[in-house]
């Protein structure tokens, strides 16, 4: 197990998945926003809403292409760079990926073509159905991949089979309704909706500032603000749900996020800010809010949340138990069906800690021969690097509350201030366009970096999960991805900006004909056109 | 849960072996013509409008077609985890090249016509060519290597190791037999693409496609026959020693494997599998005749039959082997020792039985909506065409 291979494989996975996740959240959210706009079009018949659908749909399409393309890399990378992981947990982990293909990818990919090519070939309602199927397909794919990821965080419904040297499924129901997976799904999808809402809001605000496409921009802001407010609230609330789950299932991750080294008496305080120190094992200059941590993590005033030092001691016990399991496993592998029942019973008792014994494989081939010092070292390895988690989490949460405030403000202006927006607010909306992407990537850093040293929590260490490759192979593909992805990013951004600058295709004639035909419906009692409101102050 | 014992483990394994074939064939039949059109693009379409017509014949459907490939990857992961682990890391650089091609392709489709610039468009046209030709070639090369055996071995922990470093091994993959298999695959999918273009395009594009398709079809038939001959005399086969433990645990090391004279011994044991290569030849010959005669609809169907026969002949010849090991035959993966657990196979089968018909139904509906030839007006009048 060459460490270079492990580090390079991790770097490649992190780089490609973070790149992939530049496109995913926008796909998730924009598919729904586009479908909402088309729904309004079909219900009201106003041509402007079709133009909006087509315009945002075009941007959705540019983004979608790269989301799909970079997603293929992810699916293949498990086998290419993480072949022992694939062998060890493929029996459980593979199923959601295949289901993602069956239920989600076919749906979104088959209908996305028809969405763009079907405007003249389908009735209004049929085309609207197609738009919603694309949105549902995209969101379904998030469900299945997060069930897969949720299992890596909280591996339920599976047990180790000594005959096949891998984890095998015992309950598909438990894997599917894994509480971690469900909380992650709603949190991630809502984050995608916020991303798209901020994107639509920002682009529309830019049109307002430039005095272009006012009609489209005004309506788009209304949609983005209402959709975005609901989504931002749900991100925060469901993020809290995620936190509650983490505190149950991944106590070490929770303690690391908190920078909480010692177990505090319940209800534990929350470190608002501070500077975690891995060497000294304490968090310097911590600003604490009493009670808050205990409330978020346990929703009680009496349950204790264990600190890092206590959890390390627990890991050490589990490593010792894992070594007993490993010894039994070797005996079972030798004797196979002739294994004495007593040895099987020992494995039954300690098998749950087998993964902890595998942590020792970094230091020696046979965990049974580990020295006391190596066991201590392996126990220390179970602590993830604290400060990146501590800060990534706080910035993410801060941004999350920020989105609630921004969306609430625009929702208020849109609903109660006649859709009039001050220029500073519009500039602000343009400026925060990158923020949801930052929050989403930080969220993944907390989730995945915080799971280290495991690929599957408590089951399979990252250092063991890789393929039998050479450093040269990995450097070659890593360089290939870097160059390739950079070019694609430049192309994608230039096209995105080009189409945003060009703006929507406005069919003035059609709009006028429609307005003339529906004039009676547009007049309010005071005889004024309700949509002739002023735009910017 | 004991529900999964309704279907015995060995039956489930055979079903999933068949489904693996269905997915690979489904991919070749659908995305195959997309890749074929990509290969043909620079040759059958000269002007920009001709190229746009050719691209837009597959514009609305390639994305759905490509999912057969993605689902293939997912299904191998779910139903045959050892196969996924060994082959994807074993063919490391080849997989990377395929990935690169498959990433370029969607981007080329979406971005090509978004700038009115001859050099921009020409660059993306060649990207589409590479996005079709490279995977088509490499898939064939992979099949050629699988038939010869792949140099891997499994440790007692079932970690798969390979001989030598892979950047060096990549050259080893490109041996003569594998290259022949690669060329057959490339020619076959190009023929398929020509059959599609002759159905969906008009005028000079369709006419040129028929000419190219005819020659590629003839090359496919000759290459496929040559590969069969080579397989008969030049390549050793594999066989399981003793009775296979069809319901045993999925541990390849539990079985013994030896090298045999030739894979084609299978045709003496199971004479009915001769049907597969026979259908392959029949389909390809009829496709060539159809392209010559200018028949449209039936030609595509014949070409599909040819692909079906050719791919299934490989699987049936090797049964029960899926990925033989030339380095350590005992490590070879077979249908009986490289599957998921009984329960996973059962759950996945239920999901497939429910969703596959739904997928086929809506795919058919989409093709029906898009029925008819793509004309110049379709491309120029629609704001959303590629």
List the helices and strands and how they pair.
The complex is a heterodimer of chains A (537) and B (386).
Chain A: H1 3-44, H2 47-81, H3 83-117, H4 124-153, E1 158-161, E2 166-169, H5 172-176, H6 179-210, H7 214-249, H8 251-258, E3 270-277, E4 282-289, H9 292-298, H10 308-335, H11 341-350, H12 354-358, H13 372-381, H14 386-416, H15 423-431, H16 435-449, E5 454-456, E6 460-461, H17 471-502, H18 508-517, H19 519-522
Antiparallel strand pairs in A: 1-2, 3-4, 5-6
Chain B: H1 9-44, H2 48-58, H3 62-79, H4 81-90, H5 92-111, H6 118-148, E1 152-154, E2 160-162, H7 166-173, H8 176-200, H9 203-234, E3 237-240, E4 257-260, H10 266-269, H11 275-293, H12 297-318, E5 321-323, E6 333-334, H13 342-369, H14 376-381
Antiparallel strand pairs in B: 1-2, 3-4, 5-6
Tags for this entry?
heterodimer; A: 537 residues; mainly alpha; two-stranded antiparallel sheet; 72% helix; globular; B: 386 residues; 6 strands; 70% helix; 5% strand; electron transfer activity (chain B); oxidoreductase activity, acting on diphenols and related substances as donors, oxygen as acceptor (chain B)
What does this structure look like?
The complex is a heterodimer of chains A (537) and B (386). With 537 residues, chain A is mostly helical. Chain A is 72% helix and 5% strand. In chain A, a hairpin with a 4-residue loop joins strand 1 and strand 2. The longest helix of chain A has 42 residues, at 3-44. Chain B has 386 residues and is mainly α. In chain B, a hairpin with a 5-residue loop joins strand 1 and strand 2. The model of chain B has no long low-confidence stretch (mean pLDDT 90). Classes of the chains: A mainly alpha (537), B mainly alpha (386). Chains A and B meet through helix 2, helix 3, strand 2 and helix 17 of A and helix 3, helix 4, helix 5, strand 2 and helix 13 of B.
């Amino acid at each position: 197990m060459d460490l270079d291979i492990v580090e390079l494989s991790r770097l490649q996975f992190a780089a490609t998945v973070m790149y992939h996740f530049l496109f995913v959240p926008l796909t998730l959210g924009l598919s729904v926003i586009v479908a909402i706009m088309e729904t309004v079009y079909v219900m009201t018949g106003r041509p402007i809403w079709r133009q909006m659908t087509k315009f945002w749909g075009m941007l959705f399409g540019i983004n979608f292409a790269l989301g799909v393309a970079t997603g293929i890399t992810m699916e293949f990378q498990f086998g290419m760079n993480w072949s022992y992981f694939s062998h060890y947990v493929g029996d459980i982990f593979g199923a959601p990926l295949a289901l993602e293909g069956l239920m989600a990818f076919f749906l979104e990919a088959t209908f996305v073509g028809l969405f763009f090519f079907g405007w003249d070939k389908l009735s209004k309602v049929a085309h609207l159905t197609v738009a919603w199927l694309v949105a549902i397909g995209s969101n379904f794919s998030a469900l299945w991949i997060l069930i897969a990821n949720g299992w890596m965080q909280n591996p339920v419904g599976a047990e180790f089979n000594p005959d096949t040297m891998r984890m095998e499924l015992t309950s598909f129901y438990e894997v599917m309704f894994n509480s971690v997976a469900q909380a992650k799904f709603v949190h991630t999808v809502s984050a995608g909706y916020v991303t798209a809402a901020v994107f639509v809001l920002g682009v529309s605000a830019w049109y307002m500032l430039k005095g272009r496409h006012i009609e489209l921009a005004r309506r788009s802001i209304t949609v983005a603000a209402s959709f975005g407010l609901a989504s931002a609230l749900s991100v925060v609330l469901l993020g809290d749900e995620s936190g509650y789950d983490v505190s149950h299932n991944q106590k070490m991750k929770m303690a690391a996020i908190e920078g909480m080294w010692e177990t505090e008496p319940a209800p534990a305080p929350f470190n608002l800010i501070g500077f975690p120190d891995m060497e000294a094992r304490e968090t310097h200059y911590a600003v604490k809010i009493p009670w808050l941590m205990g409330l978020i993590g346990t929703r009680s005033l009496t349950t204790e949340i264990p600190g890092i030092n206590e959890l390390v001691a627990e890991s050490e016990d589990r490593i010792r138990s894992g070594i007993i399991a490993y010894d039994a496993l070797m005996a079972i592998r030798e004797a196979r069906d002739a294994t004495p029942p007593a040895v099987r019973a020992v494995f039954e008792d300690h098998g749950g800690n087998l993964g902890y014994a595998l942590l020792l494989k970094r230091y020696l081939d046979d965990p049974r021969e580990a020295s006391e010092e190596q066991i201590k070292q392996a126990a220390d390895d179970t602590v993830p690097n604290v400060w990146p988690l501590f800060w990534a989490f706080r910035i993410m949460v801060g941004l999350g509350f920020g989105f609630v405030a921004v969306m609430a403000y625009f929702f208020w202006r849109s609903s109660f201030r006649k859709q009039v927006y001050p220029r500073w607010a519009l500039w602000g909306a343009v400026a925060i366009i990158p923020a949801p992407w930052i929050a989403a990537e930080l969220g993944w850093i907390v989730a995945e970096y915080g799971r280290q040293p495991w690929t599957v929590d408590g089951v399979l260490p990252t250092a063991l999960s890789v393929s039998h490759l050479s450093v040269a192979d990995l450097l070659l593909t890593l360089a290939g991805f870097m160059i390739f992805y950079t070019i694609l990013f430049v192309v994608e951004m230039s096209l995105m900006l080009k189409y945003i600058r060009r703006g929507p295709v406005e069919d003035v004639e059609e709009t006028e004909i429609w307005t003339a035909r529906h004039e009676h419906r547009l007049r309010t009692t005071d005889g004024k056109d309700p949509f002739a409101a002023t735009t910017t102050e | 849960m004991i529900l999964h014992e309704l279907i015995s483990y060995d039956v489930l394994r055979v079903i999933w072996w068949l489904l693996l074939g269905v997915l690979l064939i489904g991919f070749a039949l659908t995305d195959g013509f997309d890749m074929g059109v990509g290969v043909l693009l620079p040759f059958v379409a000269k002007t920009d409008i001709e190229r746009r017509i050719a691209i837009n014949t597959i514009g609305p459907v390639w994305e759905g077609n490509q999912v057969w490939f993605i689902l293939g990857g997912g299904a191998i992961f779910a139903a045959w985890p050892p196969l996924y682990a060994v082959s994807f890391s074993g063919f490391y650089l080849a997989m990377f090249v395929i990935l690169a091609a498959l990433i370029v392709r969607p981007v080329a489709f979406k971005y090509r016509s978004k700038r009115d610039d001859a050099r921009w468009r020409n660059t993306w046209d060649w990207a589409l060519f590479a996005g079709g030709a490279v995977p088509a070639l490499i898939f064939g090369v992979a099949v050629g290597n699988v038939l010869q055996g792949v140099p891997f071995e499994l440790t007692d922990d079932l970690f798969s190791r390979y001989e030598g470093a892979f950047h060096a091994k990549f050259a080893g993959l490109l041996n003569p037999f594998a290259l022949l298999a690669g060329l057959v695959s490339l020619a076959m999918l190009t023929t398929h693409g020509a059959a599609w273009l002759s159905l969906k395009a008009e005028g000079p594009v369709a006419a040129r496609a028929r000419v190219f398709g005819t020659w590629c079809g003839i090359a496919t038939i000759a290459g496929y026959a040559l590969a069969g001959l080579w397989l008969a005399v030049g390549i050793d086969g594999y066989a399981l020693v003793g009775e296979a433990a069809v319901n045993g645990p999925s541990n390849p090391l539990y079985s013994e494997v030896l090298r045999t004279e030739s894979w084609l011994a299978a045709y003496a044991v199971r004479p009915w599998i001769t049907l597969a290569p026979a259908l392959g030849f029949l389909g390809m010959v009829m496709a060539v005749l159809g392209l010559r005669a200018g028949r449209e609809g039936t030609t595509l169907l014949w070409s599909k039959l040819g692909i079906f026969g050719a791919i299934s002949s490989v699987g049936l010849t090797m049964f029960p082997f899926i990925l033989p090991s030339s380095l350590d035959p005992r490590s070879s993966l077979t249908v009986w020792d490289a599957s998921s657990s009984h329960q996973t196979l059962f759950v996945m089968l239920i999901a497939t039985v429910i969703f596959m018909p739904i997928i086929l139904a809506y795919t058919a509906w989409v093709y029906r909506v898009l029925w008819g030839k793509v004309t110049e007006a379709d491309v120029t009048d629609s704001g959303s065409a590629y």
